Amino acid sequence: MSLRAATRDATGAEEVPAVVPVHVGIIMDGNGRWATSRKLPRVEGHRRGVEALRRCVRAARDIGIRYLTIYSFSHENWSRPVTEVSELMRLLKFFIRHDLADMHAQDVRVRVIGERAGLSKDIRALLDEAEALTRGNQGLTLVVAFNYGARQEIAAAAASIAADAVAGRLRPEDVTVELISQRLETAGIPDPDLIVRTSGEQRLSNFLLWQAAYAEFVFLPIYWPDFDKAALVSAVNEFARRERRFGGVVPSPAR
Ligand code: IPE
Ligand code: IPE
Ligand code: MG
């Protein structure tokens, strides 16, 4: 699904994409390499990554993207050194505390996906607060994937369906693609049209595996702390040039 862009860039000069994806997923990768290439500690890259995230949210809003899902911490990221994990936790708290009021003022709605159970009480409380405060907002929906893993999400959906089946509330033939989609944490959010990954890596790393069935992928050769509006515009322009077929055929031009 995509919409014609309704907005022009404030400067008038920058090309505003002609076709804007409704939902963009971003794998914010390369913080560590950004830092080590400057002989800085990896955590410095994460700190600068928060600034890139702030630019990204504003740019997504300016361009007219409706849903932006950001991969902030994966289920597998717990395997990193304890000091790096605690800095990533601290930065999430900092981002919510520092930016929530501003995002609320920008009419951004915050939704969080990922396992809450494994997170500390103060982080859970902040995530709840962000969702509750912005629940009624109508602008960009920012989906924060934190402690998220797509396989874990699908396994949890399967478990909830199995529980309903055992209780006699569902029959095997009730288990459809739509039902599974409704049991995922992204229920009600359209599938991503475009997935962008920075850092040059070309993999999903357990991000939105089910939802990305027909997403377009754009891999940017920049590290996440260098991400800006121009990078987002270039990814969206690349998306606009793609021919999406969804398994069908594209009608040939009339002769
Ligand atoms: C992305 O940057 C941030 C998270 C995964 C939390 P990385 O920390 O993965 O940076 P690289 O890939 O090691 O450079
Ligand atoms: C994916 O990046 C997770 C996030 C961006 C939060 P990683 O850096 O953890 O992924 P791999 O290890 O390179 O696949
Ligand atoms: Mg990485």
From TrEMBL:
Pfam family membership, one: Prenyltransf
PROSITE patterns named among the record's database cross-references: UPP_SYNTHASE
Cofactor list: Mg(2+)
Enzyme category, top tier: transferase
List of residues binding substrate: 30-34, 42, 46, 74-76, 78, 80, 197, 203-205
EC number: 2.5.1.-
SUPFAM superfamilies (alphabetical): Undecaprenyl diphosphate synthase (SSF64005)
Keywords: Magnesium, Metal-binding, Transferase
Keyword Transport in annotation: no
Binding positions for Mg(2+) per the UniProt entry: D29, E216
Active-site residues from the entry: D29, N77
Cofactor binding note from Swiss-Prot or TrEMBL: Binds 2 magnesium ions per subunit.
Family, as annotated: Belongs to the UPP synthase family.
Chain's role: Catalyzes the condensation of isopentenyl diphosphate (IPP) with allylic pyrophosphates generating different type of terpenoids.
PANTHER family to which the protein is assigned, alphabetical: DEHYDRODOLICHYL DIPHOSPHATE SYNTHASE 2 (PTHR10291:SF0), DEHYDRODOLICHYL DIPHOSPHATE SYNTHASE FAMILY MEMBER (PTHR10291)
Subunit structure: Homodimer.
Protein name in UniProt: Isoprenyl transferase
Organism per entry: Xanthobacter agilis
